[in-house]
Amino acid sequence: MKFGTRLAAVAVALPLALGLAACGGSDGKNSANGSMPSVPVSTETAPTSAPPTTAPPAPVAHLNRVTFLPAMNTALTKQKTWRTTATMTAGGQTIMTITGYQQAKPLAASMTMTGQAFEGKSAKIIVLGSKLYMSMPGATPAGKYLMIDTKVADPAGIGAMVDSADPTKTFKALGIGMKNVKFIGPETVDGVKLDHYELTVDTAAALKTQSKKLPAGTPKTLPYSLWLGADHLVHKMSFDAQGISMVMNMNEYNKPVTITAPPASKIVKR
């Protein structure tokens, strides 16, 4: 497979695995920032000889179109690192699996991709600021990396991919393009009780924030499913677009992560 084709695979994986997966837990202090509102408690005063009684708590408020993204933005500021695993399928077959870690500030990421796009072998991607290191079967010798500084040279628009992986910009795009948020109901995933939401995003509006036009054949809207904990921590996300499905799981938030560039001896030129 040619180098350009592999870059196309990275173009799919990088924004999704880094940007859309960047959702964390919030401190739930107040509803002004999109957190779940505090539950009001009312007390009726009984005669002095009887103890006061407390009214039952009000139902828990779920997130909506107005509060959903502010809550996720607030949650994101609490997360320094996280682990992402993802599986992409098409026609009932797995075409790519992704595992990796991301650091929020400064932006850094390390992920491994395996699948048909890499002839069944594994590719490794490391992002450190504007620099991207890629080790790809058939494009680089085994164990070697190609380094691309997106501020100097930017083949295949990799700089835009890295830029779109910035979680704050991903949220901005989703916020502008979001048409609807629907609470589906509580579900248990991997033994954890979560709230399932469905989002409908205007594709053209979301792309416009990145100065991009809607490619021919792209659906006007894209549905996303997200599963959040009570603290708004995202545990799972999925979507289907043009015959390709992707399921992501996020965990290991705020655990120590060390992401470093490959040594100079492992860097090769194109």
Automatic annotation (TrEMBL):
Kindly indicate whether the keyword Protease belongs to this entry: no
Q: Where is this region: Disordered?
A: 29-59
**Keywords, alphabetical:** Lipoprotein, Signal
Name the species this protein comes from: Kribbella qitaiheensis
Highest taxon of the lineage: Bacteria
> Which SUPFAM superfamilies does this one have?
Prokaryotic lipoproteins and lipoprotein localization factors
Q: What range does the record give for the signal peptide? A: 1-22
The name this protein carries in UniProt is: LppX_LprAFG lipoprotein
Compositional bias (Pro residues): 49-59
The reply on keyword Cytoplasm is no
